[in-house]
Amino acid sequence: MINEEKSLNFLEEIIEEDIRKGKHGGRVLTRFPPEPNGYLHIGHAKSIVLNFGLAQKYNGKTNLRFDDTNPVTEETEYVDSIKNDIRWLGFQWTEELYTSDYFEILYGYAIKLIKKGLAYVDDSTPEEIAASKGTPTEPGKPTPYRDRSVEENLRLFEAMRDGKFPDGAKVLRAKIDLANPNMHLRDPLLYRIKHAHHHRTGDKWCIYPMYDFAHGQSDSIEQITHSVCTLEFVPHRPLYDWLIEQLEIFPSKQYEFARLNLNYTVMSKRKLLQLVNERHVEGWDDPRMPTISGLRRRGYTPASIRNFCERIGVAKRENIIDVGLLEFCIREDLNKTAWRRMAVLDPVKLVITNYPEGREEILSGENNPEVAGGEGERDIPFGRELWIEREDFMENPPKKFFRLAPGLMVRLKHAYIVKCDDVVKDATGSVIEIHCTYIPESKSGEDTSGLKVKGTIHWVSVAHAKTVEIRLYDRLFNVENPAAEEDFKASINPDSLQIIKSAYVEPDLLNADPGKGYQFIRKGYFTLDTKSPSDKLVFNRTVTLRDTWAKEMQKE
RNA sequence: UGCCCGAUAGUAUAAUGGUAGUACGACAGAUUUUGGUUCUGUUUGUCUAGGUUCGAAUCCUGGUCGGGCAACCA
């Protein structure tokens, strides 16, 4: 293929068409509108990459707007974490805005609607209002307050603002159509009374606008050109348009896409909050959580997440993405950037019987074989006794086992070829030592032995090994779609975290940089846990390496 | 059984009336001092029934299946 296919998603097509027609002078302004009532997760990342990406692609801008219209659930802690996560992902918003900054304007919009005879104060209880809306198959009926005069509505709404009524005593409703087949148009609530402290406006207000009377209006105030949200807001769109039309304000347009679902995890803030509150995980940033902060602590990079969000595409069809694609994206990134190190997670001792007692050598290994020059080398001490991985030895191996077994030879990475001669067992019959002889002329880089071995294994010198803690993570749930279960918590994977209290690593790892990814050769990608105690290092496994041998073994 | 949205390989996503393509996965092979990486190849798809058309994944109609909508949440 000579010229690159552009292959636009449906939003890019809409925007390009708008630009072609000169709509808004070709201006593109999107917004990312989180409610500060929880931490951002990978689903938000899709929306962030989409909104910021669209603006970048079309020379536009993106506002960050906190949708803070419900003081009961919203907190400043969440505002800070959200800003931090967006920056970490690599995006910078044009303006930091809050719906609560528009409360006065919104109040004015409500007055305008009342004056046009398009809104009324309703004294009904929540139950009465629900009943007044009817059901999807039956039209609603007006409540006794629907035909109050403009003057009375004005007076009552002002009294609501002035705190004359308790919570729930009255609401402001749009006067549209109680028989409309779209439930959202059956006189939707616009304002409710909540005598609650707001994280930004304090106690200034005791009435707060509902989502439908805040979101579209905020879009309009900011002159957002393309307001991109998820599918569940499709039925709200007629109301979004109706309010803008009646208010005669800037005509922002809403477009909807299908939210991200990942298998083997949950994505709703309510469920994630439950996992945190009920201590199924350590917190919002537990490395098993699909939150941005969890993925960060796990060792995912911003580039890998951005890349993932681009690969999954954007459409209007419900989807469940295989978490394997996320893993592919982080491996792809880390393979190119992670420095290689050796670590033994499940050690057994290997003794080189023909290597002089007390002798040691300093060998060297390139940091990154994926880059020309290897990004330098580090020293690796070698000696007569080594730790190797227990699974790299088998007494009675199957035919295609390319590791250590009596009579077989392997290459010790960056070192020598060794041949297994003997094993030492304890009283219970388990192997405690593997005795080998090494081939002196097979040293890495100056091998004149002429020997060819199929396998190469990693190792750490017993005399120089450093002890660290390693945490291995697995999927948090045992079923593909936990949200579809009766009780999603019943399918929590009890083995999602495995802690290895003492693993042996090469000494250079004591200099590991926080925030950097390391490949423990043949074992996976790891990163320093940001909450390691100062007296010991803890490494989190980001993801395993692809393991075709393990897959082969499973087939048998 | 009211209204709305959707349906293309296992999972996603293109093809905008003219050769059904791409990525991930799976499978096979080559290379490899990581059973990693890289490279090559193979496999699998238009929900269904009609209609319009020289020609339909695409347009029309009916059906089927999936999802959403009746919070003083967003």
From TrEMBL:
The UniProt entry annotates the motif 'HIGH' region at 34-44
Q: What is the reaction catalyzed? A: tRNA(Gln) + L-glutamine + ATP = L-glutaminyl-tRNA(Gln) + AMP + diphosphate
Which SUPFAM superfamilies does the record associate with it? Nucleotidylyl transferase, Ribosomal protein L25-like
**Enzyme's top EC category:** ligase
Alphabetical keyword list: Aminoacyl-tRNA synthetase, ATP-binding, Cytoplasm, Ligase, Nucleotide-binding, Protein biosynthesis
- Can you tell me which residues bind ATP? 35-37, 41-47, 230, 259-260, 267-269
GO CC aspect terms = cytosol
Q: Where is the Glutamyl/glutaminyl-tRNA synthetase class Ib anti-codon binding domain?
A: 338-438
Its predominant location is: cytoplasm
Q: Quaternary state and partners of this protein?
A: Monomer.
In the record, the note on similarity to other proteins reads: Belongs to the class-I aminoacyl-tRNA synthetase family.
Protein name per its UniProtKB record: Glutamine--tRNA ligase
Please tell me the species this chain comes from.
Parapedobacter luteus
